[in-house]
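Dear Dr. H.,

I hope your travels went smoothly. While you were away I took the liberty of generating a structure for the chain from your last submission, since the lab meeting agenda had it listed for discussion. I wanted you to have the full record in hand beforehand rather than looking at slides cold. The sequence, exactly as received, is reproduced here:
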Amino acid sequence: MIRRSWSSLPIIVLTSLEATDVKVSAFDAGADDYVEKPFGVEELLARLRAALRRAGPPGGPVLEIGELAVDLEKRLVTVQGRAVQLTPHEFGLLRLLAQNEGKLLTHPTILREVWGPAYGDESHYLHVYVSQLRRKIEPDPARPRYVLTEPGVGYRLRDTTG
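The corresponding predicted structure, in token form, is as follows:
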């Protein structure tokens, strides 16, 4: 099984099951599309092409937001050229935010992508990790420059000085 925290590849579920709860579970687990048997090869190929178009070109291996750089390939984060040590979950959180720079990501979305579907209602985990991440990458964690809170909704990553 491919988990969203490991890969951003498009995922299409092929199954003979028709139950709505199975479809919902597949989408909640990160599937991009769902095809029930029997299906035609042309339909499957069209869905694959559409999923690849939506995925777009992969981002460069280094995402830069102001003086913050996230090297996805090397799993290296620097602020003003200084390396910052992050735990795997902190890096996963920052990677997700950086790959969606400027977009508001809701608490359930972040929890599902970084921790998995079982943590969808555990927003206290998220608040703790955001606080830890801010202490490591923000010049002043009390007045965040990068990881911005949208109260009651989620977080977004952007450089507020630029």
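Two observations you may find useful: The chain has a mean pLDDT of 86. The longest strand covers residues 12-15.

With kind regards,
E. W.
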